[in-house]
Write a structure and sequence with these properties.
10 strands; 2 helices
Length: 135
């Protein structure tokens, strides 16, 4: 009986840990700031190209004007895929050997000075604020 009484409390505690992140649509005019003004090279160089990074997760993403993107997940490897802007959300899609990657990129602030990514991994839904590199 006392376990039943603890269940709602445990549920409230676990729900309270989640931090709500308000995200915004990416305006067409802000998009050019984040897209490299060239086609994706055979061997992208993220130390030179515009990219968005989260070192804690870790993940690096670079968008290119040919609607391709390059990603580097230091724990899982790198690869590439395609991107498109759909109703204010940059949608990234890539095929990997073990899974298909779907990432939504949105503004982390109203002016779209910075971006955030949303995706689901083996731990569930995730939202990461990204840092700008070479932008």
């Amino acid at each position: 009986m006392k376990y039943l009484m603890l269940m709602p409390l445990m549920l409230l505690i676990s729900c309270g840990k989640q931090e709500a992140t308000k995200l915004y649509k990416v305006q067409d005019s802000a998009l050019t700031k984040f897209v490299n003004s060239k086609n994706m090279p055979k061997d992208p160089n993220l130390t030179l190209d515009k990219s968005i990074v989260n070192n804690s997760y870790p993940i690096e993403i670079a968008l290119y004007e040919d609607n391709r993107f390059y990603y580097n997940l230091p724990n899982l490897g790198d690869g590439n895929g395609t991107w498109k802007l759909n109703n204010g959300v940059i949608e990234l899609k890539a095929k990997r050997t073990l899974f298909d990657m779907f990432i939504e990129v949105k503004g982390s602030d109203e002016a779209t000075e910075n971006l955030a990514i949303q995706f689901t991994d083996r731990f569930g839904p995730n939202t990461l604020k990204m840092m700008n590199v070479n932008i």
